[in-house]
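SEQUENCE-TO-STRUCTURE ENTRY
===========================

Backbone structure tokens: a row of integers, each naming the local backbone shape at its residue.

Task: work out the structure tokens from the sequence, keeping to the layout shown below.
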Amino acid sequence: MEGVVKRLEELVSKQVGKPPVGVYAKRFISELKRLEDGFFYDNRVSTLFTDMKNDPLAELLLTPVIDNVPTNISGAHIHMSKEMEEKLYGSKKPVVLRELIQPGQYLTDKRVTLKGPYGMVEHLAVLGPARENAQAELLKKHILNLGYRLDNVPIRDSGDIRGTPQIQVFNPETNQSYVTENGLIRAMPHVHLSEKSSLESGLLDGNHALAQVRSISGKYLLCPVTVRVSKNCSDEVHFDKDDAKGYNLPRDAPTRLYKCQLQF
């Protein structure tokens, strides 16, 4: 985010002309600097969207590209690797309990226990199918229960597990354990887009966008989200339960996506 702020400042400083050129852009930059936790902006920032309509620099910052993207709230879960699945379950592989919105993804009938330096998390949901690398996506309370500090477990995009804590998984059904080198993360808010929506919006896989969602209390919030594009996926914004609880977000709320011309 710091890189985007710097580049925006450079753009604004190069503009020659009378107000309102750059006026609201400068205010927006000021709000970005005020960002506390890397997630949500408050109503002061949302108000700037209206103001920036009169600012020629606005199009360099944010452009609305998709409306009414469904929102889903994710709980803690683990994605197993094929090796982990084989070690913990052998021939009794997890089976589909419930299909998820994203095609091919599902909740299995299995639950596992995670062990940490000073505690454990029981009954953790297992999602399928198995992946190349195992990854556990936890909430704040689970991280603390394991004995980690919150800053020990980074907020990451799915699949970005380099330098993250190990996962110690225990299957209470078979008394089998499996330990990975890394894979423990807190999930970064993200949006799944179909190839069609990606083409129409100009949002590419790996890009960052801003999602605007209305809270239960009626407050509009903005959140940076990572874009994930695949051929057969359904358009859907994902927040975790910590985000939903902390910012009073409803399930299934329609979300508007803004494209940031300067990627952060």
